[in-house]
Amino acid sequence: MPENIKIAGYIDHTLLKPDAVPSQIEKLCEEADEYKFASVCVNPFYVPMCAGRLKGSEVKVCTVCGFPLGATSTGSKVHEARWVIENGADEVDMVINIGALKSSYADFALEDIKAVVDTCHTGEAVCKVIIETSLLTDDEKKKACELVLSAKADFVKTSTGFGPGGATVEDVRLMSGIVKDSGIGVKAAGGIKNYADAMAMIEAGATRIGASAGVKIYNESLRE
Length: 224
Fold this sequence. Notes:
It is built from nine helices and eight strands. The protein is an alpha/beta fold.
């Protein structure tokens, strides 16, 4: 592994399955603490548990908002973001209103993003914006990245992992090309199953990796 790449610090160690149980979340936190991953990424219900388990650790608590469809009201997204922050979330990955972006309601899509970003920043939390690239044309991906820039989010993220496709090197490269000069990060997520996948995303411009295979990725990195 190149000396300048510390793979663990890129990884949001993720468990967002609807049937996840507390013992699995506890294990997720233990692994994140042991391997020094950037964060654990869990559904909102588990935020208080993770915040308690990881108190005093450098591992952040990441959660999701408007997940996985992005089609809830702006008010409900804002309420959800505020609740998770109050209960210990350090980072919030929100899903855009995809239908609004793809239609004549781009102004609404921007206001929806901005409302959550502002809520996160008021609560001193990082906001990552999921654009669900597999549902967008290249022009729509560019437009989504421009909205994320306008809303002053902290990251743009490829995918929920629940859509028809996940992160691709081409999408990460496109997104990075639009946002990198502004200092906004790119989170690649969805289908990243090994070290080679993760490194391909990082080389394309990803600054964070969302993956459920974090331990495998880390262990594979030691053999490089």
